[in-house]
């Protein structure tokens, strides 16, 4: 999926609003991955605020991420002649959305929350404590098949940033979760 997919517009996003579980994601087309991710994360932070109520520290952290962290980490993917290809991601790829056919052994993935994104975005969910696929071994195996984007030495920082989307979405889905209280 990551190798072969092509965004129909050449941009990041999707042609309809997609849902992660019961919650909508901001998926309007954007030419810049940095801008798209910033809007995606801001939309999820708003959902969390609506569900769980205000939390000043989180609001400050989201503001800082939007103004400093996202432009710095993700902007580096799109500067100095670098470009990233928008590729179709599942968007909610965790062990609960993967199955094996008993008779054939074929793997199936389902319950997608798709959009065209930076391929590394798919891995953020694999870092969170509330999923069993959090072992670093999954991320290492992925990198055997897909090279990390330049700058490579910032891959782990990008992965940590991408995991924030999953943490906030989980918090908005499960009010009062330990994710929000950590």
Describe this entry's structure for a reader.
By secondary structure, this protein is mainly alpha-helical. The protein is 40% helix and 9% strand. The protein has helices at residues 33-52, 56-75, 136-145, 155-173, 178-181; strands spanning 19-20, 23-24, 87-89, 98-100, 107-109, 115-117. It has a two-stranded antiparallel ribbon with strand order 1-2. Strand 1 (19-20) and strand 2 (23-24) form a beta hairpin. Helix 1 (33-52) runs antiparallel to helix 2 (56-75) and helix 1 packs parallel to helix 4 (155-173). The longest helix has 20 residues, at 33-52. It starts with 18 loop residues before the first strand and ends with a helix.
SSE layout and pairing:
Blueprint: E1 19-20, E2 23-24, H1 33-52, H2 56-75, E3 87-89, E4 98-100, E5 107-109, E6 115-117, H3 136-145, H4 155-173, H5 178-181
Antiparallel strand pairs: 1-2, 3-6, 4-5
Helix pairs in contact: 1-2, 1-4
